[in-house]
Amino acid sequence: MRRKFDKDRLIGFLLVLPSIVAVAIFIYGFIGWSAKVSLSQWKGLMPNYTWAKPLLSNYLELFKDPRFQVDVRNTALFTVLFVAGALLLGLFLAILLDQYLKGESIFRTVFLFPMAISYIVTGVVWRWLMNPAQGTRMSGFNLLFDKLGLDFLVNNWYTTPGWGIAFIAIPAIWQMSGYVMALYLSGLRSIPQELREAARVDGANEWQIYRHIILPLVQPITFSAMIILGHISLKVFDLIIAVAGKQLQLDVPAVYMWQTTFDGGFYSRGAAISILLLISVAVLVIPYLRYSLKTEESL
Amino acid sequence: MSKKLFVLISALLVAAFVLSACTPKVEEPTSDQVEVFSWWTGGGEAAGLDAMIKIFQAKYPDVEFVNAAVAGGAGTNARAVLATRLQAGNPPDSWQGHAGQELIGTYVAAGQIEALNFLYEEEGWLDVMPETLIPLISKDGNIYSVPVNIHRANVMWYNPTILAENNIAVPTTMDEWFAALDALKAAGVETPLALGEQWTAMHLFETVLLGTLGPDAYNGLWDGTTAWDSAEVTKAIDNYIKLLSYTNSDATSLSWQDASQLVINGDAAFNVMGDWAEGYFRELGKAPKTDYGWAPVPGTVGSFQFLSDSFVLAVGAPHRDAAIAWLRVAGSKEGQDAFNPVKGSIPARNDADRSLYGEYLLSAMDDWKANVITGSLTHGVVANDAWKSEIDTALGLFLSSKDGAAFQTALVAACMASGPCK
To answer: Out of A17, A69, B145, B377, which could bridge B206 as a Cys pair, Cβ 3.0 to 4.6 Å?
Structure first.
């Protein structure tokens, strides 16, 4: 019995070995390499791994860099609006679908579909919809608002000075709220009907049922969704490029990293930005992983 | 699913991965080959390259031409691919690059391309190319690339109808330009000056620098003899801020094509864009002088702010002789007259066959011969990549803050960090 167990373990280990090696090289090895580059003086085409003096100077310069400050502000604003928006809209759609209405599966598919599209496609389409041109060249939503007599809604969209990034959250919410809906819907469905009935017997109205029973019960889902959306939002790149191109008003760290590395040849600075991005995502994800590992163990 | 079926599918998948890894091996380059790397994959550029390749093949029938063009991103993708190949020590024989500091700052600094003075002497190119061009594509007296075509950056396109309706003469100085823009604004023209995304704003800025400083002081900005914190630069930034007040509010959402199109559609009176815009206007079926007019950007009359695509010789080129043969074709009258009419640009040589070119290009050829040559910032002539990207960042911050003093401070810092300033 014991021998067979060992053999199984060996075969299992051999089977996952290629992935372990690949992950070790292509993920952790390259993270290490990026960290090394971020501490180097590499500027220009050819690698230069001389340590920077002082060692952390690439990072210290970034914190003083006015462009990086714009990036941090933009990312923070985008993350708050995108995560909050997608959670609220997703929950709302899930509650609507949870009413056991006719054609539920059609609605579910319709709301989930945007997730199947890549951010580049979403970005291109929303770039047309949110066309900021005004006057005779008006088009997209602006034209629609104008024709409907809703002139007060005509605006500059993502070219609004200072707040353009807030409008980028709209396509992102459109794309991801269906996914959040699916998460919530599965959560809502797993809540036993008896709990609601018991509450109704105790005289709770629908609002109170959601506020005091349903929402606390789906809290783990809210938590997971926040983590998933949050790390997508910190790394956002393709959506920004598709909607806005390379313009500093809507700059985020990933765009800065790309431009400074490949257009400017500041490899060490680009690597420093990538390590900061990694750290910011890790701060979000690692506590979550620990939490979910713990809950799995306790099961 | 039965276990057997599962095993079968797994085996098939493994086989598929193994087979896909066994793609045919890339042919080893032989001595009678030349690999030329570019980002000319579409439109007039690709057609022009093909025309030049035909000439090359007629002259050197036993050399196989390998066209290693990489598509996308106006060269951004190609340059990333090239950087990877060079870092791996696997250079193509020759590659395309913007003549000037973009090549010199990146590839000469890394010791990747050879000086071509011998070729210029053998082929007599120094006699047929403008004297003021040579320093802009050289470093320490060494010439590093063969310019195939010349585009002009400091062109102001205008809508002749709008100007005639408002009795405005084509402005030639900054002050005349501001007067014209004010008059148009007063007459209710929605957008007197059309502007597009951020790089077109940099393009406008470099022409305003040239128009305010004049060619000598402008050239001095890039070799360190004109100070970036001088009063002239302050004046140029003030002019630029003023010009921006006449532009369309949706500039950041427009490509250069969109912005140029505003002029021919009658939505805007002026647009500053390189002379590739002319090729675009022709594509749209517009006629020169009636649908669109052109003049040097006000203040830059007598200067030709150029940019150029050029080819280089790799250090350690696998087929050095064939690469030199390619460069001879690229710099020849025949090669340039084949490439440029199709691409919509003028040859770097002064002795082109004038019957091949249209009305605008002929006027550009006359100016190329007679004017002082200056280089473009946006298109890689005067500043290396690092410096240019620092200026781009400073400009981007300025476009949202409109803080001229902070912009100038950032420009000074950029020159210190990545330019020749001490």
So the answer is: B377
